[in-house]
Amino acid sequence: MKRALALGVILLAGLPLRPANPGMKTAVAAVESHFGVRHHGVPLPLLWVAKPFLIRAGVGGLRIATFEDFRGDGSIAIDQVVSKALGAEWSLFLEARSRHERTNIYVRPQGARLAMLIATLEDNELTLIQMNCSGRALHHWINEPVGSAHNGKHKGNRSAEPSAGSEGNEETQAEKREPI
Amino acid sequence: MKHICRCAGVVLLLLAAAQAQQGIRLPASWEKLAAKAAESVNINLDANMLKFAGSFMNGRDADQAEAKRLIAKLKGIYVHNLEFKQAGEFGEADIEPIRTQLTGWSRIVDVDSRTDKEKEKVEIYCKTENGQIAGMVILAQEPKELTFVHIDGPLDPADLNKLGGNFGIPKGIVTHEPKPKSSPSKSAASDGPGEKR
Closest Cα of chain B to A23: distance in Å? Predict the structure, then answer.
């Protein structure tokens, strides 16, 4: 019995631990470890400038990580790495492909909001953006996903346009750059 | 032998379940077209996402309330859109495998509009189960654009235009015969329900 228990403990200890809340951190860590690259954050002043627009657009909790000079081993691999890191809780909402750009948007309902992770590979630059969308912002994204993807692909900042659904001051703890 | 049959049955069931989850599997020719396209967009709205989206729709707005009622019954909306740089980059030979995929579906609308201003072909297919519509496919072709939409779940064709312009579904889809226009249109007619492919 003791032997069985010990074996169970050893097996459990050997299991890879999935973080309780997979998201940006796990995606960034997976990309870094798989491709041997380091991410860069976005300067805080830039986010401060964007903050009022983001609040009005119902977007909060913005986190951005960029990987410059990203040389993956094929663009499909990056999709697989990010999908695997996010796990089954996140579902692939949108895939957009063009000659020089690939964008995947993963979503996960989070209470009354929707967590959204955008992975964009443009030439040799990979950008990961995570944000939380309010009901109105979500309404905009879901109703016009193609247009939103076109607007949001470039660093996701266009989604901060007021037309994306003005929300007043609903989101008080808007985006802050959190360390990844 | 019995064991093999059982295993094969399980595999088929799993494949069917996987296909049901992801909507209609697009033929390999779509991937080839996607590789040629200037831009390719796939949108997956599964039942969970639709439910979540519905919870944010404004029930006091008549249009949103109607859309909310319609999507509440759906299992998913899957949109595949290809945009090409030039006209003529895809042809009937590329479209036919997609139609072949829809064996057992009824084409209820086939509008081929070729006016001076626009060239557009829209086909709508329905799948019925126990006399009820269980799914719908829209195949819309423009000279530089190809859109395939799979709506999984019960939806009255007459309600389709209420969802058009939302959820990636093309706008202005008319499931009834349009009124005759003064501008020439090569054909604008529904095949009528029940045309089996």
Answer: 18
Choices 3.40.50, 3.30.310, 1.20.1070, 1.10.10: CATH for A28-164:
3.30.310
What lies within 8 Å, CB to CB, of A51 at 6+ separation is A174, A175
Interface of A with B in 7-66 (CB under 8 A): none
The pTM is what? 0.71
Interface test with A, best of B36, B42, B57, B83 (most A CBs within 10 A): B42
Closest residue, chain B, to A135 (C-alpha): B56
Among residues A72, A63, A159, A79, the alpha carbon closest in space to that of A123 is found at: A72
Q: Do B48 and A99 touch (CB under 8 A)?
A: no
More confident: A155 or A8: A8
Minimal CA–CA distance to B121: which of B152, B153, B98, B155? Answer: B98
Contacts of B54 in chain A (CB under 8 A): none
What is the pLDDT, as a whole number, of residue B24?
72
Whether A176 shows a pLDDT value over 70: the answer reads no
E-strand ranges in chain B read 39-46, 76-83, 106-114, 119-129, 132-142, 145-152, 187-189
Residue B112: CB atoms within 10 Å: 15
What is the ipTM metric for this complex?
A: 0.71
Domain locations along chain A = 28-164
pLDDT mean by block of 10 residues, chain B; 197 residues: 52 43 70 90 89 80 84 91 92 88 90 82 92 91 93 87 74 56 42 40
